[in-house]
Design a protein that fits this description.
Helix content is 25%, strand content 25%. The chain is globular. It starts with 13 loop residues before the first strand and ends in a 10-residue tail after the last helix. The strands form 5 sheets. Strands 3-10-4-5-6 form a 5-stranded parallel sheet. The chain has a 5-stranded antiparallel sheet with strand order 13-14-17-16-15, sandwiched between helices. It has 3 domains: 125 residues, FAD/NAD(P)-binding domain; 66 residues, 3-Layer(bba) Sandwich (FAD/NAD(P)-binding domain); 112 residues, Enolase-like, domain 1 (2-Layer Sandwich), CATH 3.30.390.30.
Length: 342
């Protein structure tokens, strides 16, 4: 316990759900003051004048955009040639343009090699296109991923098996190799998302209770809470093509949506990826201020194996932002009402 006392609890079943922790870089260890993780970046008492963010994934983009809006000069350093890996490339590029217009600076294909701290200020060294670049910062946020919080729990002492990434191995019923020990959430394989862990928790307890618990991992949305937000579920257009699936694409911009126009909130679009043969929705992607809310409709339709026609033939109230979702679905078959169908 927190006061140092040890308590032994005897039980029939144990569910390990210890979550994850930020990954450190070997040359940029967290000091909690100048080189920080997402935890400390939520606790700044004032906006740093200059903030360097290493890693343009979900966490880096979210916190970078927050401090940019609060007045910081934010520079994003990303090793890859794009931001938001795993999300639809077209919408990710659009998000980058919007965030750049808001004042954020992006350096892609930039490999960070050193972070030096002197008297509370940092100098970040990176290489881009063969040239060495140096950046000065008051704070450096390292957001290059998270690791499962699986060590030091005592699980290894009783023989629980781990994979090469130190994730606890489980079967489709969340059972480890040790009878009576289960694991869910960030500590096992799969996306490190709170709602994924929540669903696994419910399914795991249902299974322990003798019921039929199940999680459909194809119907779990990913969201980046920037402004605008980027949300996606299922396959992206590129992922479908890599799998050799013949697809049709439907798109609709919020600039053609009446509710977005009246609210002067027209940045972004809705995009559907549908199977060309069956019309089944394989993926949906949204960039908008309320993308996290709008993606739920697509998640539901993917859950029951629905098609773009199912959404297109469903009445959506007017005027609402959800009409853009319907119009994008209609555009899969080039039947959208308020844009030229191409």
């Amino acid at each position: 316990s927190s006061n140092g006392q040890i308590q032994e609890i005897e039980t029939k079943n144990i569910v390990i759900s210890t979550g994850s922790a930020p990954v450190e870089l070997p040359f940029a260890k967290f000091d909690g003051k100048t080189i920080v993780s997402s935890t400390e970046a939520l606790e700044f008492t004032e906006a740093p004048k200059k903030l360097i963010v290493i890693g343009a994934g979900a966490v880096g983009l979210e916190l970078g955009s927050v401090w940019n809006r609060l007045g910081s000069e934010v520079t994003m350093l990303e090793f890859l040639p794009r931001i938001a890996l795993g999300f639809d490339l077209e919408l990710s590029n659009l998000l980058q343009r919007v965030l750049t217009a808001q004042g954020m600076t992006f350096h892609l294909e930039a490999k960070v090699s050193a972070v030096k701290v002197d008297n509370g200020h940092a100098t970040v060294t990176a290489t881009k296109n063969g040239q060495e670049l140096k950046f000065e910062a008051d704070k450096v946020l390292v957001s290059v991923g998270r690791r499962p919080f699986s060590e030091g729990l005592g699980a290894e002492k009783v023989g629980v098996e781990f994979d090469e990434k130190k994730r606890i191995k489980v079967d489709k019923h969340f059972r480890t190799n040790v009878d009576g020990i289960y694991a869910i959430g960030d500590v096992i394989a799969g996306p490190m998302l709170a709602h994924k862990a929540e669903d696994e928790g419910m399914a795991c307890i249902e299974i322990i209770a003798g019921k039929a618990g199940h999680v459909n991992y194809e119907a779990i949305a990913w969201i980046i809470y920037t402004n605008p937000e980027l949300a996606g579920v299922g396959l992206t257009e590129d992922q479908a093509k890599e799998q050799g699936i013949d697809v049709r694409i439907g798109k609709f911009p919020f600039r053609a949506n009446s509710r977005a126009l009246t609210g002067d909130d027209v940045e972004g679009m809705v995009k559907f990826v549908a199977d060309a043969k069956t019309d089944r929705i394989l993926g949906a992607h949204i960039l908008h201020h309320l993308a996290s809310e709008l993606i739920a409709e697509a998640v539901s339709v993917i859950e029951f194996g629905g098609s773009s026609e199912d959404i297109g033939r469903t009445t959506h109230s007017h005027p609402t932002l959800s009409e853009a979702v319907r119009e994008a679905a209609l555009n899969v078959e080039k039947r959208a009402l308020h844009i030229i169908n191409r």
